[in-house]
Amino acid sequence: MRHPQAQVIGISVAGRPLEVYQFGNGPVEKMIVAGIHGGYEWNTIVLADELIGYLGNHPEVVPLEQTLYILRALNPDGFARSRGFRGRANENNVDINRNFPSNWEAEWPRAGCWDYIPITGGKAAASEPETRALMAFIKAHDLQAFISYHSAALGIFPGGQPPDIGSLSLADALAAVSDYPYPPFDTGCSYTGQLVDWASDQGIPAVDIELTNHQDSDFEKNLAILSVFLDWFYSE
Ligand SMILES: [Zn+2]
Questions:
Q1: Residue range 188-229, pLDDT digits in tens
Q2: Ligand 1: distance of its center to the CA of 41 in Å?
Q3: Number of neighbours of residue 39 by Cβ within 10 angstroms
Q4: Distance from the CA of 150 to the center of ligand 1, in angstroms?
Q5: 6-231 is classed CATH 3.40.630.10
Q6: Which stretches of the chain drop beneath a pLDDT of 50?
Q7: What distance in Å separates the CA atoms of residue 225 and residue 236, rounded to the nearest whole number?
Q8: What gap in Å lies between CA 52 and CA 56, rounded to an integer?
Q9: Three-state secondary structure call for residue 141
Q10: How far apart are CA 133 and CA 131, in angstroms?
Q11: From the CA of 27, how far away is ligand 1's center (Å)?
């Protein structure tokens, strides 16, 4: 097996590297991020590692004109801490997916939202090094499509509030080859500071995909999604 070299794009609060793997070298750039919710959603990191291994063995899967980036774990500190509720936040007890400068709030009504232990959106938008490292990487590239993996069970969420047309188009395409719920379940939670909403603000078609449960990587399912993701282009 070929081991592609990882690029370190930043360092977590506790000093762990944020690693991005690159496949292909073409001008059309796309990105997959896993592990924003750390050990609570550890199976997304397992999936990212499986996709990285697969693409290392099958580099021809990425079309010549494309570059695919995979960030395997945006919250490595939470991943190292716990495979449960306590693994969700970063080392500052911040939910990284509530820390992006899009509709940001330090606190939010917890009704309908994840609320197993108290965590915050941070002292300010983009207060966290993990958030800032990914924002800098995204701004330095010209991404044409973006997936952020979560678990579990709520489905596929297009980025933007309300969702932008490119993110809706991407969500439609990925939903067509999977059995993940789409439209996603509405738990009544009001979402603030989310990565895919910020990506949408930058004009990048973006979706959250929630795996089926908190254990399985859904590798085969997401291989089908990867194929459509690489074929997909937004055209107005
Ligand atoms: Zn999540």
A1: 999 999 999 999 999 999 999 999 999 999 999 999 999 999
A2: 6
A3: 22
A4: 4
A5: yes
A6: 1-2
A7: 22
A8: 6
A9: coil
A10: 6
A11: 30
